[in-house]
Amino acid sequence: MSIKAPRVTIAIQEEIVSLFLRNNISISLYKCIDKLIVLMLLLHSISIAQEREKRIGTITHISSQHVYVQFDKTNSINIGDTLYLSKNRTEVPALIVKFISSRSCAGEPLVGISPNIDDRVIVYLPIEVPTKIVVPEKNDSTKGIVSPEPKTMIPSQSAFKIKKNYKGRFSVQSSSNLNNNSPNIQRWRYTLSFNADSIGGGPLSFSNYMFFTYNTNDWQNVKSNLGKALKIYDLNITYSFRKESKLTLGRSLNNKISSIGSIDGLQYQHKVGRFYLGGLVGSHPNFSDYGYNSKMFEYGFYINRLDTLGISNMENTIAFFNQTNDFKTDRRYLYLQHTNNIIKSTNFFASSEIDLFKKENGINKNNLTVTSIFLNLYVNPTRFFSFSFSYDARRNVVYYETYKSFIDSLFSNEMNQGFRTGLNLRPFNNLSLSLNGGYRFQKNDTKPARNFNGNLYYGNIPLLNVSGNISYTKLISSYTDGNIAGIRLSKYITSLDMNISTDYRRIEYKFSGGSTLIQNNLSADFSYKLPLDVYLGLNYEVTFEKQSSYSRLFVDITKRF
């Protein structure tokens, strides 16, 4: 069952945008926060309900064109169904099913979606109603009454397995550039991610994400400064106090305040009803090499509310942060975030940063300045049609102590704004068309930047038994005019979990100075699942220019555990 969204929803969203954009109005911080809370309460009054089975899978492999998801079973899943990514407690449409096996699916990612290995994927399926039968009996007054068919419940084998409470991934990637006019360059990247929840059934959890990357001809510099090659984004341990509170120590990414990036220090979160109250104290990693620096001291707090409305969610966050450099205020700002999918087949996301601190001529000032606004709307009313729209506006973030040597040059920067739209049509299961366009401008630009992309996909081409797509991209800006056209053929072998593909692209660029660049690119991809959850990926690409040619070989070996 579903209901139509009331007109007040549109009015509220317009009010949110209006509040963010009113950059020069005279209004106190208290009134801004008070108005936001009122809007949150109004949005909370909307509800939607629908009875569907929620089935959860996990992304096991990502190739150049498809994302592979493993389920316990794939019955009732059909080609063309939409799979959702679960991120920040919000379910976002992410994949369209193209191939199905007994326990896995291969899907094509939607525009703007960047899935990762081990991400949780959700599909909603109609609930199967037990078959009803008529039981006739002689001389019985209940003759003809419909009764449910009795069922014998047999526990599955998986019900006796110990639940796995950890997951991880280790990958080794090699990228080799082979050029006939210059020395060859090889780049290595090692990535490790590991998460363990409730270690040994206890209150401790562990999380880690890091990578080590370098060029072989730059190894001496890497040895002298390891921080240039080693990047740690997540390395922490969390202690949970029952279900209401948790304490995190180390470098952590907090999905409720994701915009500020990694935090070195201590974070505490406590749940009160539907509210999450959190605070942090620590330091920000170096801007140059992302290393630890105790002088980049920062602190902050946030209030988050999560509402579950049937199968839908709405989440609102307001946060305050003060960042320093050598313990002098570098930046002070508010962060606002809203997500919801309360309107049927619609996902809405909004975020904004409002700076509260300014320093001019050595004098500290409290000043409200909107630094960024991001709005994204995704509508997917049927499996045959989807539409997306996003608006992004941002100024350069000013860190008054870190950038004080050239701070004057930043004051003159205008807000850079942009729009992006996307349309996906699937008139048939094997045929889809996607159209995307972007427009970005700044007040002093001589010409706004524009781009257009079209992609026509057809699966299971007759006789060839392969999938193919044709794409075209047009780029226009104040310094270049470009065209990119390409064709791609791919084949997924379900029984082997193997994907092979080949691709051709022609690139033409005309630059403002009168020079041109023409390239013809050929590439081939291969991905295969080996025993013991090891995945192998190979890509070879060769580029032909008028006077030179060069190629690239990419190898990826990933072990999941």
Compact summary:
This protein has four helices and 30 strands.
The percent range for helix content is under 10%
Pairing-aware structural class of the strands and helices? mainly beta
Number of helices: 4
**What number is the mean pLDDT?**
79
Largest sheet: 22 strands, antiparallel, barrel
Overall, the morphology is: globular
Cα end-to-end separation: 40 Å
Q: Strand portion, in percent?
A: over 45%
Low-confidence stretches: 1-51, 127-162
Number of strands: 30
Query: What is the alpha-carbon Rg in Å?
Result: 27 Å
Describe the secondary structure blueprint for this structure.
Layout: H1 7-21, H2 29-44, E1 53-62, E2 67-70, E3 82-87, E4 90-100, E5 104-109, E6 120-125, E7 132-134, E8 146-148, E9 166-179, E10 185-196, E11 204-215, H3 219-224, E12 230-241, E13 245-252, E14 263-272, E15 275-283, E16 297-309, E17 312-325, E18 328-340, E19 346-360, E20 363-382, E21 385-394, H4 408-411, E22 416-428, E23 431-441, E24 449-461, E25 466-476, E26 480-493, E27 498-511, E28 516-530, E29 534-544, E30 549-560
Antiparallel strand pairs: 1-2, 1-6, 2-5, 3-4, 3-6, 4-5, 7-8, 9-10, 9-30, 10-11, 11-12, 12-13, 13-14, 14-15, 15-16, 16-17, 17-18, 18-19, 19-20, 20-21, 21-22, 22-23, 23-24, 24-25, 25-26, 26-27, 27-28, 28-29, 29-30
Helix pairs in contact: 1-2
